[in-house]
Fold:
Amino acid sequence: MAETTPLLLALVFGSIGIAYLVYGRRPGKRVWLYTGLGLLVLPYLTTATLPLLTLGVILLFVPKFVR
Structure:
């Protein structure tokens, strides 16, 4: 089970990143665009479970706190 966890996290964060990216293409939503790109690139930069989960959750909440 421990070997599939990073793969499933990458799938979840990649799917949410696509949604953020599509929403971020609207005018005035650049934070969503860059956060979506970050969520898409994140699984390529780290393969460890804890950093992937931590950074992914932080990136999920960035658009809520940055305007």
About this structure: The chain has a mean pLDDT of 92. The two ends are 38 Å apart (CA to CA). Residues 5-65 form one domain.
